[in-house]
Protein 1
Amino acid sequence: MNEFWQTCVSRLEQDIPPQQISAWIRPLVPLAYDETQAVLRVAAPNRFKLDWVRKNYSLRIEELAAEWFHRPVQVTFELAQGRAGLAPAPAPAAPAPIPAPAIGLLPTETPLPAEVPASSVFQADTGTQHATRIEAPTLVLASQATGQAVYDRSRLNTDMTFDNFVTGKANQLARAAALQVAENPGVSYNPLFLYGGVGLGKTHLIHAIGNAMVQAGTGSKSKVRYVHADQYVSDVVKAYQRKAFDDFKRYYHSLDLLLIDDIQFFSGKNRTQEEFFYAFEAMVAQRKQIIITSDTYPKELAGIDSRLISRFDSGLTVAIEPPELEMRVAILLRKADSEGMPMPEEVAFFIAKHLRSNVRELEGALRKVLAYARFHGRDVLTVEMCKDALKDLLSVSNGQITVENIQKTVADFYKIKVADMYSKRRPANIALPRQIAMYLAKELTQKSLPEIGDLFGGRDHTTVLHAVRKISDARTKQTELNHSLHVLEQTLKG
């Protein structure tokens, strides 16, 4: 049995990307093969993985099993022992509705002090001074809750829903996980951690989850809150200024769903991280759902407490990648239609082929084309019109992949300076991106090793060869690195 399964996994590795193998295939456990019935039983660690594997990989596994056992085989999937009969623990009684504190409603342009050391805050918390209680806006009192009040309180963007979220290979897993969480909050994957580059739809997806929960009929009962990490930091600072941590904690700890965007902005904010850790523990203990977005994988977050990173890893982590060509076309067609100016497919393909980094870039290009058409009184969009409207953008993206383009793309991805690609400095945060850029230059251009070395500050060709071999070997063993390389390759090649 073990020999069959090892062979099966090896064959699947030839068809499926390494990240998907790690996420879906390796967690599976073959239980038994019934020779009489020709049935192979396979266990999955949780319901989500079970459903996903059954839908996407069961036929391929059955084909491989049939080859091995020389007869048609039925593969059945079940939850791993100890999971099948596991029922969610009863949720504790809901506390009385707590109004949203006004700390998040103060003018955001008010200058904020630097992060306050935790020790000084604790001294203030335990002091004998009378804390000034923050008044909550009457808008969010439970007795006056209306549909609009629910959205005002939650800070949800009602325009961001599952219905208008364009799905493709780059984000289908993230969307499936988000739907599962929206239907079963606090049960399946807690927290749900979505990560990916700028403009790939992370914010849209978490707003869609919140909107789905509100629209499911629990609108005025469930306490939902979307907050950008910067605003959460601001809330912590203002709570300290007003000696109102009791209100702050009572509000955030009582939420049913917390959607926190761009958590990388917590980096170095120790007091904020401490407060978020307490809120995280309180919510998870009550089976309340937390959803987090970031621009990078949890373990790659810099300046974040290891306790938080371990909590992030305890749930489900899903990547959102740059959209593929077909998805970019679908996004353009839908956006143009919503603007009241339908776009011919050949025009959408033209734009999508030349602009490929993220959804925001596509939307910006579309707005530029529509503005150009309206200014010139054009009712029909054409490829020639797009060339005129987007000539500045197209001049940048039209050329073949160059080493210079690779250096800039990798530098932007890893948040270093392009000049670091040529420098002699060797700190890890620069050396690895430089080696990745050398690897991509060898893979994606026709340049020789000496030519690549010259473009990286006059380095010897043996240095380039070492980098190419190192990254080539590492990507087969490190899921996160392989994902990053895949994103960079897709961004460069479109």
Protein 2
Amino acid sequence: MVAQLVSYYLRAAVASPKLLYDHGMPNGEVLDMAYLTDELLISAGPTNDYRRSFYRPATAELKQYLDSNHKDGWLVYNFRAEPSGYEDSDLDNRVVHLPFRDHTPPPFFYIPLFIESIRDHVGGANPAKRTPPSTPPRAPSSDSVDTDTSTRPLAPSQSSLLEGISSDPSLVPTTDVSSLQLWERSDSGRSHSSGSDDTSLASQMSVNSQMSQVSQASSQSQISRISGSLQSSIGSTVSAPRVAVLHCKAGKGRSGLMGCAFLVAERGWSVKNAADSFTRVRMRPGFGEGVSIQSQKRYLNYTYDWAQVIARQYRDIKVDLDYIRVWKPQYSDIVITLSDYENDSDRAEYSPSAIPEVKKRYISSPEDLTNETDDYITFRPKETVSLTGDCRVKVKHVVANPFSLPLVDGQGDAWFNLFFETFRVREGAYDFHNTEGMFSVSWSHMDGFRGNFQKGMWLCERVEVGWRVAQSQEGTAQES
């Protein structure tokens, strides 16, 4: 009794400012989780460690709850890049791993993989839209479970789980941009192409499939093999409504982003609707947003464009850095760093324990300073700097300290995706003939330490990164 009381208060303290869930628990326990919809359950990461189980969900408790309330209709998605805290076998091997680092968005290609897997599990191809609940949904009671499976989708087969991109042509990460001139969102909410006679770059790039198709298809194959035992675990029919359990460490940023991404892509929700609903069911009133990290919000907007504007077209592109411009810099010795994921082979070697490493590609230096005015300074690299896929720009200022290590008195960063920032010409419109791109982010929209708003000293008004589509891509296409 005392241990249960201590656990209750510890979980409440650690979960704060999140809401706790206490419905359907046999002995009045609380779990750090919330239903985003009746098919999406967001949870803090469960643990097998006895001490941590006082303030985190115990794996056995979570499994007991799922078995009791969802029978054989549950499947767990683990987004933790850090150690999980439990073994897959503790959850009957019903675990799909898509790990990415805390306080960051995932590589964008993860999002279509996740959406295809979860739609196979909970509903199939774009079922009727689920509207946001006015109150947090509760798990069905054991005596109210609908056992009629005639209208319920079958469980995902081993061949389709996270291989759905091959089974649904609309989800293929395209490398053929020759037919995609200008995509624009019309007033009716549907995407359409306005057409163009300029096919120079598009035709040159149309057969450049190695970077995207090989790496992403390899990841699908790896994930499918990892998840292959799920077919025998779940079976071809289930006796309870399906639910996907999404968890990271705290069950907030990473899980919230991916849950909202599914609702935006598969249920037709707006970004605001999905994010507000997650905040309402997961957070205590007045304690901030559920998805609060600026870069994660940016990737949620990318998901909306991918699903509802450009007909699910995506591929990684390679670019060459042109310039970095810092507006209203506070210091003349400000340092700018550009990073991306190390290489495409990381994706071909996908496993739950091996995730793409972030690799620094460029660090600004005084030698690269080409223009300095009262309004901005501009850096242009003297050598070619190539970037691929998802990139991070970081701004920081270091104060030399003769008595100890150098002191960072200000730092901010932002993740962005080169595909979307290159081809988006304005909100709701994309032109796949663009050969140049630019990303601009203000200081207030940068992420601080560990994704929070604390960035230290104000360093600049905004940062602008410009690039050109890499010529090597055109050469590859021409050789083919």
Protein 3
Amino acid sequence: MCAGGSAHEMWQGVMRFIMQSNALKPFKKESKRIIRWRNQKGK
């Protein structure tokens, strides 16, 4: 759980970036890929 601290902060930054870039349609596909990658890392 402790090791996830910095990773969580990084994910917050990624989510903020996605929110700012949500006008870009192709980026939605990329965000889904990032989420899938993050879920694999979480295991």
Protein 4
Amino acid sequence: MSRILCPECGTKISDKATKCPHCGFQSADPKRPISEQDKYEMVPIFEYDIEEWQPNRGDLSIISYEDNRSLIQYFGKWENIKVKLPAIAEVIGAMAGKDHIMVAKMDSYVKDLIDKGIYRFTIDKQGEILPTIRDADGFVKQVRLEDMTLTPNLTQSLNNLSTHAVMAQILDEIEYVGDAIREIHVELQNDRLAMAEGARDKLMQARLIQDAKLREAAMLNVIHSATDAKRVLMRNFSQNMYHITEHSKKSDFQMMLDFKGEKDVNRKAIDAFQALVYITNSVQTECEGYAMLGEYEPCKECLEEFKSFILENKLNDRDTLLLLNENSSQKRIEVVDKFTDIAARITAFDPTERIDYTVHSLLTAEHENGGEPDEQE
């Protein structure tokens, strides 16, 4: 037995069925199967495997030949090492320089006599000590000399190098933690945006389902996903907006001193702009989903919730959007203009009116030149 799609509602039915169990559709002759009298489509069957894409990345190498050659060319010059790595250059220089001296060998008895002044070293005309000893009567004593090599004391140099290494490690750890925090922030923001994008993708897929029951179930799932994404983004936007507003109350002198806070506000302003666009898209997904189901009352509720969000965050005031744009390094005046238009339409929305044909236009940003509407960025 094969299965076909009902010509009326698209529900999957048997090719021997004389009546659709879902919508009650019958052909001209109720005693004969629908498939023998009306045009219909077969239920699609996909007979192929979905293969996972696993690109071959090749063997991983710790350091490439080109990088290794560049390092040798750069650090092969002593002048570069002294400029870029002074602590290491100091230790290498100290270890490379060794002093050679001649040391007089004498027993403890002779040393004691020298200490008492009975024996003394001979002094030449330049005032330097000669390796000969004279007693009080002027008799010369010979002293054996021993060649010695003195290794310089590297304790201070090694301590300096150790301090440099520890400080470099600490700074590297601090930078690593900062990078990790920034990566977590980016990942969280991407997760929030991906929820909204996922809901919109589900909507585009669900509307193509031909089975009425499956389409209705899928559409409800789409709406729930869009609501979850919308609320997460709304909470994040409100928090960022509060932080930006508090920062804007600081004096110019305080802002100059708070460089880290300035960078943080810039990041929050960019996130807020992104959230604003995706919140609008999520509300649009909710409303379009309910409209496809023919349920316009919950659609009105979605618009009312969006209206409350706009009023609570003063997004119907253009100055609020300009404040976001002012604190963002990515100037998005086109987003300010388009959302100002959307906010005006939403706040003017009357829930007592019919919205059968106005749902799409309420939440669609229009071109600045008044042309055809386009989708949110």
